[in-house]
Specification:
274 residues, alpha/beta, Rossmann fold, seven-stranded parallel β-sheet, 8 helices, globular, binds nicotinamide-adenine-dinucleotide
Length: 274
Amino acid sequence: MSPSHLRSGPVAPGVAFITGGARGLGNAIAVSFAKEGASGIALVDILDETAFAEGKAAVEACGIKCITIHADVTDESQVESAIAETVKEFGRIDYAANFAGIAGPLSSVVDTDTNAWKRVLEVNALGVWLCMKHEIKQMVKQESIVVESGRVDQRGSIVNCASVNSIQSGAGSSGYTAAKHAVLGMTKAGALEARSQGVRINCVSPGFLKTKLLEEEFTKATGKSMLGGADASAGAWSKFEARQGREASFDEVGDVVVLLSTPHGGFTINEMDG
Ligand SMILES: NC(=O)c1ccc[n+]([C@@H]2O[C@H](COP(=O)([O-])OP(=O)(O)OC[C@H]3O[C@@H](n4cnc5c(N)ncnc54)[C@H](O)[C@@H]3O)[C@@H](O)[C@H]2O)c1
């Protein structure tokens, strides 16, 4: 029998809304929420049905209801509709993770196409801002769910996706770096605005994880595959991993987002976890 002072019950019993949720880190976050007892999960992405089916199956394997919503985070009306659809299905949104993102061109400032640069800013910065805007609007309308008595009320929690590039940079990443610096800034401002209304906003800055994010642009820039065979980008990738100490797994990012989202982190706002 468990000692009575130990916590029991789900860590994250609310509804999670995750952009970029069909694959990669977004999907790992969804699975982490599912494992911690979320009552419903919405995966928002622009990928095709096959990718959505895979992402949804990973969540449903944990026995949690999951809906998929095709929406582009750079389109305000699609963001609003995605939120409305989630609320229609589950009644509320307790946890939002804004993880839709692209790498953009890996080229020097002088060699980068201006429209390609603008698109990285649109997806990675404007997209996060639009989601945050409409998530806050939804969350302030809700009452807090009670996870543990004695905790300060939390109407909702938002975790934005920053990056190591929110603090430092690398040659050939001016668009991505600018966008991720912007995410850090908008998280700080948003967190200070929303805290008085019971909404917490934080961001996480993952290191280097072998998702599909960089694959296409990396191949364009180097002619090599980043995720492919044994020799795939060994040079570049081993340098990245040396910087962070070891290879990271996607669920390590997923679990951090869940921990930041629950009222156990109730006094944490405006925080960036690497
Ligand atoms: N992988 C890394 O090393 C790393 C490091 C730091 C930060 N990040 C960030 O993590 C987040 C997730 O990326 P990932 O590494 O899992 O890569 P990923 O490419 O697997 O996931 C990104 C997801 O965002 C979706 N997406 C792209 N544009 C969109 C749009 N306009 N609207 C809706 N969805 C869109 C993609 O379809 C994809 O499913 C990104 O914000 C990325 O910048 C990744």
